[in-house]
TrEMBL record:
Its EC number is 4.2.3.152. Keywords: Lyase, Metal-binding, NAD, Nucleotide-binding. Coiled coil: none annotated. Pfam families: DHQ_synthase, DHQS_C. SUPFAM superfamilies: Dehydroquinate synthase-like (SSF56796). Residues 115-227 form the 3-dehydroquinate synthase N-terminal domain. InterPro entries: Dehydroquinate_synthase, DHQS/DOIS_N, DHQS_C, EEVS-like. It comes from Streptomyces crystallinus. Its cofactor is NAD(+). This is 2-epi-5-epi-valiolone synthase.
């Protein structure tokens, strides 16, 4: 830490130095270096600049709860070999996998408390977070050596991530994603959050888990609709940056749905492996250089311009990935109208959505005021500009800031005329 020198004030009092001027010129290291800076003789202003190194690991580990595995305890110090953990588990996951998880913890001699939490989008709120905090308080944890463990989908991981970022101003946590969205998106980024006041993820922090352990075996019990829900976020990455990933979804999407990434067939296993790795790698390539979102042109925002408002308005009828897919369908057609992709590619995209059994239409698109309000809210979220990612062919993206209400209305009409797949009806 460097401190800039404050000149000897005695020189200033006598007025002997003609070079005197109000306010010391900034001295010390370069402009954006870490350090403590002062700006004036009276030292009435300090600027503290520092940086905090952040690194976190995402590890693929099949059969994570096999008794011989020890990855779960790799984060957190185990003083004298003692393992003590607070484990938050999604209620559905507990019903399906809880016995095996408890047997694993017992086998490793862990002292633990399991907090079972029903989790879905309608429960992604501060009250659920507060309940978890109360139970952590009752159990008592060492905030440096006993990371909280969360086992569940994106909803529970977002909630527990928020709790981790707030509890004692930062308590490390370990993520075990159990849904496809969790494996490729919610479990690999730094975002945490809850819905608030009817708005999607309105309260949240940037707080990555120290360690995320990916075991696709959990997908065996995930229902088909939620496999498709996760495939929507994989399609997002494919459309903005990975044409091969798109081709894999186009050719093998139905196999992935049928086999739930469990590699039932040899071909299905090879595709599941490559699709997961490509999706995760692609997401991380986009996230790492801009993890704290200093720059708001973010390709991974694709499909997330209108969908936050549409998803919350449709709740609980439209899952997150489904709302993202409807948004991507609308913006694919909008991009086609702007000449950013051909009619053939437009039709390929819509066909892949159908192949993944995802909606590319929702009755809410019929409400132009909703779409206008959605875009206005996103403009606020993106510091006053649309910064709207549009597909530039398949596997590329450009950002636009000038989409008009007429364009949106036309894209809705185009999408309707293209006979898009409707989501389930909702009131
Ligand atoms: N933080 C991020 O960067 C990020 C990224 C993408 C999405 N998200 C968030 O993720 C959420 C969506 O996540 P999701 O799709 O995982 O939803 P979810 O967490 O609601 O899980 C979906 C459903 O599946 C059940 N479930 C979970 N694992 C299961 C399993 N292995 N077998 C059977 N059932 C299982 C859950 O109980 C739930 O009912 C949204 O709130 C979205 O905002 C966050
Ligand atoms: O849904 C999420 C994050 O919540 C991701 O799939 C998505 O790609 C991005 O992170 C987007 O930036 C949307 O994030 P946000 O609206 O939650 O800030
Ligand atoms: Co998303």
């Amino acid at each position: 830490m460097s401190v800039s020198p404050i000149e000897d004030s005695s020189q200033l009092v006598t007025g002997t130095d003609p070079g005197l001027s109000r306010g010391l010129p900034l001295t010390g290291p370069g402009d954006d270096d870490a350090g403590l800076y002062t700006f004036s003789q009276q030292v009435d202003s300090w600027v503290v600049r520092t940086s905090k190194p952040v690194s976190y690991e995402i590890r693929i580990r099949d059969d994570l709860f096999g008794l011989s595995r020890t990855d779960l305890f790799d984060a957190g110090a185990a003083p004298e070999g003692r393992i003590r953990r607070f484990v938050v588990i999604d209620a559905d996951v507990d019903l399906l996998h809880g016995d095996r998880i408890r047997a694993y913890l017992d086998h490793h001699g862990a002292e633990y408390e399991i907090c079972v939490v029903p989790a879905n989008e309608t429960l992604k709120d501060f009250d659920t977070a507060a309940r978890i905090v109360r139970e952590i308080d009752a159990f008592g944890i060492d905030r440096r050596r006993e990371p909280v463990i969360v086992i569940g989908g994106g909803v529970l991981m977002d909630i527990v991530g928020l709790v981790g970022s707030l509890y004692r101003r930062g308590t490390p946590f370990v993520r075990v994603p159990t849904t496809l969205i969790g494996l490729v998106d919610a479990g690999v980024g730094a975002k945490t959050g809850v819905n608030f006041n009817g708005h999607k993820n309105r309260l949240g922090t940037y707080f990555p888990a120290d360690l995320t352990l990916l075991d696709r075996g959990f997908l065996a019990t995930l229902d088909r609709r939620h496999i498709g829900n996760g495939l929507a976020e994989i399609l997002k990455i494919a459309l903005i940056k990975d044409a091969r990933l798109f081709n894999l979804l186009e050719q093998y999407g139905p196999v992935l749905l049928d086999e739930k990434f469990q590699g039932v067939s040899e071909r299905g296993d090879l595709v599941a492996e490559e699709v997961l790795r490509r999706a995760i790698h692609g997401m991380l390539e986009e996230l790492q250089p801009n993890l704290w979102e200093a720059k708001l042109e973010r390709t991974v925002d694709y499909g997330h311009t209108f969908s936050p408002t549409v998803e919350m308005r449709a709740l609980p009828e439209l899952l997150h990935g489904e709302a993202v897919c409807v948004d991507m369908a609308l913006t694919t057609v909008l991009g086609w109208r702007r000449g950013l992709l051909s009619a053939d590619d437009r039709d390929r995209v819509l066909a892949v959505m159908r192949g993944l059994e995802l909606p590319s239409w929702d009755p809410l698109l019929e409400d132009p005021s909703l779409l206008t309000a959605a875009l206005q809210d996103t403009v606020r979220h993106r510091n006053g500009k649309q910064r709207l990612p549009l597909p530039d062919g398949i596997g590329g993206a450009v950002f636009v800031n000038d989409v008009t209400e007429d364009e949106i209305t036309r894209a809705v009409r185009d999408l309707r005329e293209l006979g898009s797949t409707r989501s389930g009806t909702h009131v």
